[in-house]
Amino acid sequence: MRPRRRKLSELDEEQLLRRVATGDRGAFDELYRRTSPWLAVRLRRRCADEQIVAEVMQETYLAVWRAAGAFAGSAVGGTGVGWLWTIAAHRLVDAFRRRAHHAEPPVAAAERGTAPAAEDEALAGTVGGDVGDALRTLAPELRLVLRALVLDGLSVRETAVLLDMPEGTVKTRARRARIAMRKALT
After folding, report:
1. Which residues form the RNA polymerase sigma factor 70 region 4 type domain (predicted)?
2. What is residue 104's DSSP assignment?
């Protein structure tokens, strides 16, 4: 009797990525179906230009199709969706750089006064106690920098491009956020 092959819907994102690495188109389609809605929301929180978001989505999934083996063969920990977000965040920064010479940088969603970002809400729900309280007391501009540097894993330069501010401002705000967090936790 042959072992039963699991349905794609039963696989987690990491297993799907391993299958994508072998050229499994069905696994790629399932990964896209599961991850594209939240990825689009996260990108829109950082960029108001729908054209850039669409380009970044396309570039991200093309990169995933081409380089899924890099994740599947990685001995480094991490989740499949984390790896996917890292690719998307870097592609968004690249898109901002490409457009910087041709037009004004897109307005960050936070500057438009929209609802809190999904990851802020998730973070508030999962980070409790003193750390959660300290995060919630940070000024919004400090939380934005902290989110980009810590949660999204971007460099200072990438954060500066993403948030459309000088690198020195990013460093200053990151330092102010660390000091405020330290003060709140002691």
Report:
1. 131-180
2. P
